[in-house]
Every structure is written in C-alpha cells, then in structure tokens.
Amino acid sequence: MRAVKTVISAAGNLKRENPTMNELICLRAIRDVNVPKFLQDDLKLFNGIVSDLFPKIKEEPIDYGILEEAIRKSCFVTKCIQLYETTVVRHGLMLVGPAGSGKTKCYKVLAAAMTSLKGQPSVSGGNFEAVNYFVLNPKSITMGQLYGEFDLLTHEWTDGILSSLIRVGAIASETNKKWYVFDGPVDAVWIENMNTVLDDNKKLCLSSGEIIKLTEDLAVASPATVSRCGMVYLEPSLLGLTPFTGYLTSGHQWLTACWFSFKVVCPSKDLRF
C-alpha cells in the first residue's frame, strides 16, 4: 500500500504541474517511483511490462532545466536525478550499493546543486531550498549514544546524537532542508527505532516518552522498514574504473600516458567491477 500511495503522490505532483496530461502522468509516476531501485537486468523486464500496459504512449525525455545543468557540472546525472525524484515523494530513503558505487558522492552532488539553485523555481513545484546534511555511522556508537538514554543512577535523560540533531532541526527558523545521513550497514538493531520517523507519522519516539515531530545491502532490514523508504540503487558497473583512474592520474603525465596505453590494450568496456 505504501508503494501504491507513493505512485499516487508522484502522479498528483505531476498532475498539478501538467494539468492537461492524462495516461502519461500515470506512466511517469510509475517510472519515477520504481526505476531508481531496479538493476540493469530488471529494467529490461520493467520496460517490457510498461510497453504492454501503455502501448500507444510515447514518453518524451523530461527536461529538468537548471537542476540538470547544475548536476552536470559535478558528476553522474541519472542517479542524482533519481535521488531528487525520490526526495520529492519520500521523506526517508536508502542509497544502496557496494563500496565505490558512488552513494556518498550522489547525495553530496545533489545537495550542492540544490543549494546553488536556492530560491529558483523547481520542476516539482515550489522553489529549490538549500540543503544541510549531517552524517554519522550508527554502528560506531551505542543505541544510547544514538537515540539517547535514561541514567538509572542520576535519573536524568541524556539526548543522543540523532535526537539532538532532530530537536534542533525541528525548531530551526530557516527553511533549509536537513538530511540526516546514516552512513553504514543497515541493522535491525538501530533501524527499527526509525519506523515512526519514516512513515507518515514523521515522529521520533524516544525511550523517555518524548516525541519529536519532524517538520517535514538490506538483508537484515525488515520489510516494514524497507516499505517505508524510497530507494535508489547504484551499481559500480555504471561508473567503471575511469573516475578512479582519472583521479589517481591527474597531475602525473607519465601515469596518464601509461593509462592511455593500457586502455588501448584493454578497452574501457572491459574495465568494470
């Protein structure tokens, strides 16, 4: 039901933006919500199903205007656009992929692009807002340090890192978006406590009884958690080795020459993870 609701929400945004569109709105909403989470092999099957359901509709490329231009200056476009589309319809999402697939760079590039466009009209309605993101590794600290804990000896409540950040963000006067990034493996031990934050309640429930209202690989994550999150999957094969070798050889002419010779012997299409 959450997946259906997300599609309906995306379709509503598109309908308000383009009131004359009919079936194309439904097709775009289905694509925007589902394509980011698919692997390359899954996309072939998905496109086949879509072509059967909408045989007479020709989907035109979407013009993201100044947002796409800003992202092109930084990095890979498609996944950044998919991440933006997911943030429009979901307030909680997961960036999934192996190490080196570009997860960190993806959200940093989008945040920089949106911040540079602050105040300008957005393709999803409204204006772009600056983004502040806070990064922490939930597996490097205890649950008490993350969410807060009650001291049985002093009978005092001590806020955790996340509860402190959300408390400050909830009462902040500026309109900047705030992204709380959990950079680490998903574990049911800490992620289950986020269910009320990720669903429509948008509340962080602490063990002290306080409720903070928000203003606005997944093998061990339960379906309840996954269903509450938007998802963008990043594959290392989309990047290949070129970004890494380009960074390592920059400023070293002899390395650049060696890399050019190597590419002649071993074509780039073979240099995948």
UniProtKB/TrEMBL annotation:
It holds the Pfam family AAA_6. One of its GO terms (molecular function) is ATP binding. PANTHER family: DYNEIN AXONEMAL HEAVY CHAIN 1 (PTHR46961:SF5), DYNEIN HEAVY CHAIN 1, AXONEMAL-LIKE PROTEIN (PTHR46961). InterPro entries: AAA_6, DHC, Dynein_AAA1S, P-loop_NTPase. The lineage of its organism: Eukaryota, Metazoa, Chordata, Craniata, Vertebrata. It comes from the Eukaryota. GO terms for cellular component: dynein complex. GO terms for biological process: microtubule-based movement. Residues 1-104 form the Dynein heavy chain hydrolytic ATP-binding dynein motor region domain. This is Dynein heavy chain hydrolytic ATP-binding dynein motor region domain-containing protein.
